[in-house]
Amino acid sequence: MSQSRISGPFPIRPSRHSSRTKFFLFATALALVANSFATNASEPTSVSDPEIQTFLQNHCSDCHANGASEGGLDLDTLPGTIVGAADLAVWVRIHDRVQSGEMPPPDSSSLDESQRTDFTTALAAPLTQHHASEKGTVLRRLNRREYENTLNDLFGTAVELETLLPADGRSHEFDNVGESLGISMVHLERYLDAADLVLESAIAKTADPPKTHLIETHYAETREAKTHLGKVWKQLDDGSVVFYQAFGYPDGMLRTSSIPESGRYRISITGYAHQTDQKIPFYVGAKSFARGSEQPTLGYFDMPPLGPDGEMTTIELTAHLEYRYMLNIIPYGLVVRDYNIRNDGVDGYTGPGLAIAKVRIEGPLNDDFPSRGHRLIFDDWQRNEVMPNSPSKREKSWYKPEFELTSNSPDESLRSSLQRVATAAMRRPVNEAELTPYIELFRSEQDRGASTEEALRTAVAAILCSPDFLYFREPAGKLDDHAIATRLSYFLHRTTPDVALLKAADQNELTRSTESLLSHAKRLVADPRLDRFVVDFTDAWLNLRDIDQTSPDQKLFPEYDRYLRDSMVEETRQFFATLLRENLPVTNLVKSDFAMLNLRLADHYGIEGVDHANIRRVPLPKDSVRGGLLGQASVLKVTANGTNTSPVVRGVWVTERLLGVHPAPPPPGISGVEPDIRGAATLRQLLDQHRNEDSCRACHALIDPPGFALESFNPIGGWRDRYRSLGEGERIDLRVNNRRVQYRLGLPVDSSGALPSGESFEGFEAFRECLLKAPDQLAKSLITKWLTFATGREMGFSDREEIESLTRQSAQRGHRLRTMLALVIASDIFRTK
To answer: What is the tens place of the pLDDT at every residue in 44-63?
Structure first.
C-alpha cells in the first residue's frame, strides 16, 4: 500500500478578516520580535590581551599590516573588540589558520609549537566567551515545511501550504536556521490565508459524513480511446486497453477519473503485463489542467503477467486528491523497436505492453469525521444546522448548510475552546493572561456583527498567526521540558510534539532523566513520521532539493527520464534511512556493500538481477562503485550542470557536505574556469593553469582531488571512461525511447589525484579507500550537521569542545548512526539555547 498527498494551486483570496484583526495580529507579532531582539543582544568582547597582540605584531605584521593585507586580512583595521558575527568570523579564521600551522607560513617563520599553542589558547577564551553569549540571541520561527506539517497534524487536514508562503532563506545548508528566517508583513498576510485554508478544510460543512463516491472507469470509455484505439492503444477481448510505449502522445491520463471533491481516496488499478513473462513497472500520478498546478507522483508499481488461471492483479494505494485532479498511468521501460505502431497499427505488434482492465476510485474516505481540528475547536459547543425556510432545499446539489453554535455556558465554552487550541498550537500550557487577547478579539468580532462561529474562527486564526505558534519558545540557557519536547519533535518528526511527548514534558521527565529523553527519541525514530526527517535532512544536507535546478542535455544524455529522476532521489533518502534504522557505521556513507535500487537504477548502473519498480536493498559485489553516497546518481546530478561536470563543484560538495570542511571563497577578481564545449580539452586540463596561481593553490589542493575522483561519473551519474560531447570524438548512434540520438565520445577521463597529505590515488575506488581512513572526520561532520539542523543555529566556536567530545564517544561506540543520534540528543548543545 502507498500513501501520498496531492498538492494543488491555492489562490491568494481576499482575507475574510477585518483590518482590526490584521492590526492585532501584526502588532502582536512584530512587538514580540522587536522585544526579543532588543533584550537579547550579545555584549562586545575584548581581544586586546597583550599576548594576542604581541604575537600578531611579531609573526603576522609583515604580510598583514603597514599597508600589506595579503588574503584580505589587514591588522591595522582589525577591531580589538568583537561586536558582531562578522568580527567573530575574522578572529576565528585567524585562530584556525594559526592552529593548523598554515599561518604563519612555515618557510618564513621561526615559530615553535609552544608559542603557537600559547597564542591559540589565549585567543580561544574571548572567542568562546563571545560566541556563547551570541548563540542564544537569534529567534527561530517555523519554516514553511514545519508550518505546513504542524497545521495539518493539529487539525487532521492535508492542505498544501508550503508554496503559499514566501520562500525560506538557507544558511549553512539548511532552511531552518534562525538567522535566515526573517518575517515580514507578507509572511503575516500569508499566514492568515493559510490559517483560513486549514480551518476551511477542517471544519465540517455537513452534519453527516460526506457522501462517499465510487468511480469505476475504463480507458476504453475515454475521449482519447476514439482516436487511439487500434493505432497506439489496443483493446483486448477481455476489455483491457494496452499501452505499448512509455513516452510521447498520448500519455495515460484518465479523464473519466476526475475527482468530485478534495479528500483521501482509495485507488485500485486492475491489469496485467501483456505479451511478456516479465513484470512491467508503471507510474501512477495525478494531473490537473489548472494553470501552475503540480503533477505529483503517487508511486511506481510492478504489474505482473496473468496468473496461472488467467487472473489479473489489482494494485491498491491511498492518496489525498484535490478537486478535479485526474489519474495518470504510464508504463516505463517499454520501447517499441523496429516497428512503427503509429503507421502500421497495433494488431501486428507482438512486443510487451501494459494492459489496464479497470480503475476504481473510492472516496472521500471518512474515517475521521468530523476532523481532529473540528473537534479541537467545537467540542464544548452544540453545533446545529440551521434549517432552510424550504426543507426541499436540503435535497439540492447546490445546498450548503449553515450552522449555529450554542452553549449553556458560552463564556466557559469559549474559554475552554481557546484554551485547548492555544495549548495545542503553542506546544505548552497556556495561562489565563495569554488567552485574554484572543477572548477580546472574539468579543470585538461579535460586536461588529460576526456570528459566534465566525468570531471563534477568527480568534483561532489569530492563535495560528501568533508569535507563540510561529516561533520556538527557547529562552537563552537550559531549555525547559516543553522546549526540549518541541525541539526533539521538530528534529525527528518535523512537527508539533505528540501527546506522549507533551505528557512527559508536563511531568518534567525530559529534564529530570536523560534516559526518559532518549526513550522518547527511540520511540520517534521507530515511528513512520521519521521519513519526514529523512527527507528534509538529506534533501538539505546533500542538496537533493536542487535536483531539478538543471535539465540534462537530451542530446548528450537521452536516457534521463522522470522515472530515473524520481528513483535517484528515493535511492539516497532510503539509503540514509537504512543506515539510521539499522545503526550502521558512518563509513557506509563512503562505501557500503549494498545499494537501494529498483529496475530503473539498476539498468542505469549496469547491475543485473533487479526486476522491481520500488526501491529495495540490493547486495553489491565487492568491486562495485555504487555503494555509498559518492556513487549515487542524485549526488552526481546535483553537482553537475546537465551538460558538463566540474571537479571544483564536486570537490566543494565532498569537502563541505561529507567532510565538514568549508573552503574559503575565491579571492575577488578570480573568475571560474569555463568548460570547452567542443570536447577538445578536459576541465581538468583547463584547471591546471588556474590552480597554479598563488591565490588559488591552497584551496584547490583541498577541493580538486575529490572532484577529480568523481570525474569517472557523468552529469546523470553514469560511469564513464571517456567524455561525451557534441563536438569532437568518436560518433555514437543510438535509439533511445524510440528516437534516434547521436553524440560523440571524446577525451579519456583521468580520475587520479593527490590529497593535501601527499597521499595519491589512481581513481575513484582508491579515493574512497582514502576517505575510509578518516571515520572520525565523517562522524564529526555528521554530528555537527545534525546539531545545526536540530537547534536551528550554526555550530560555532564555543561548541567545538563538546563536538570533539561527542566524536570521541562516537568512536568508542563504532561511529554507528543511531548511536550517534542518541549522543546528539543527549548533548548539552541539544538541550540548551
So the answer is: 888 888 888 888 888 888 88
